[in-house]
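Q: Got one fold?
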Amino acid sequence: MAEFTPTVPARVLPSVTVRDLPEPPRSTWRVIGPGLVGAGVGLASGEFIIWPYIASQVGLVFIWGAAVGIITQWFLNMEIERYTLATGETALTGFSRMWKHWGIVFVLMTLASNLWPGWVTTSATMVTYLTGSGAGSVRWIAIGMLVVIALGLTLAPVIYTALERVIFVKIALVITLAVVAVLFAINAETWVELGKGLTVNAQFPSELGYAVLMGAIAYAGAGGGQNLCQSNWIRDKGFGMGQYVPRLVSPVTGEEEAAASTGYQFAPTKENLARWRQWWRFANIEQGATFALVSFLTIALMSMLAYSTVHGRPGLKDNISFLQVEGQVLQDVVGPWFGVLFWVIGALALFASAMGIVDYTSRLASDTIKTVYLRERPVSVNRVYFIVVWAMAVLGIVILLLGFDQPLILLVFSACFAAVMMFVYSILLIILNRRSLPEAIKVRSYRLGALVWSVLFFGTLTVLVVTQQAQKLFGG
């Protein structure tokens, strides 16, 4: 083959280096993990609150929506991974090659969605259900959690490894809860209703509101900036060309390596394309068997648990207080021990999600800042990550100490940002994976159709959510 000219654009950032694609691993078990991390971080308010709340109100007639949302996100995640497998760069770096500031736009929207410490106060609130302490203690528990999260993420020698272990423990706990629920709390009628909800009795219960239902579909599994971080997680795990990029480590306890700020590309030779097919097949299976399957099973089982215990109960709220009611009902129906187990696992699971949210927000920010804006500066991406993690923790602590409630405007922005982000980066992924990759590995066929569907779905959701929230803010 003639000398290969990289297809990745070099107008904004330097050109990539041409190298052969590394051999796929002989033992695939060694590189399973990013999909589970994605599922584990995503198992937060959606799985514990939104979907069980929907089940408590209308039964399991809408569970098909979770399947649609997760399948859509599986396709999205794979197109995010495609670029990283082929170049070792994150999707945000790829977007920044098309326009310098795309990366920072997504980072700022992700920060705006996650900066307010609501993601850690939910875990702290569940702790109060266990201890019996009043709502006033939530603030201090949440502050302690923020400090633990920041220490855990910045003192671990290899940050991804630490996060992966936390998420693996979380998933094991959630599976334990699910098994116990199947044995003691979920009745036979619920299994029948689940089957009907996926087939003959599938409905779109519009009485709950179109924005609520479409939002639940959109954020089943992950959503917003979290999907983009699949790039960072598979790179740190050593997928594809990511093997050439040093992992994110603690600047305190880790061993920093000199790293190029841009990535690599392989020539489409017969040998490289054979390796690519193996990597691509493995990456698809890993995402399907971990992210997609774990996310759907968790949503289904938590929804079934809610249906078996509190379906039809009046006055249930679609916020964290819903879990207190569900735990109390479980104590009455099954036994005091099960209600306690439910709250313990819920608190730990939400804490692990909070840790993952800080990690992925900080990863997206540090990678973009270093690669695009500090490329020639001596500061490492590890140190930028350290600063962003502690900035998020300190700002969260200040907000909690000042006693502010989450303002309406931030709730509005959070609801809008995730939908807008997914709509825009669905379009950008089509452009990136069509124009920046060699003909043999670019997105095409039904996968291109899935991205078009994603654009249409998240575009519709964006219009619905922005219109609804604008009416709440400005009246009408």
Observations:
- The chain has a mean pLDDT of 88.
- The two ends are 64 Å apart (CA to CA).
- Residues 157 and 250 are 5 Å apart (CA to CA).
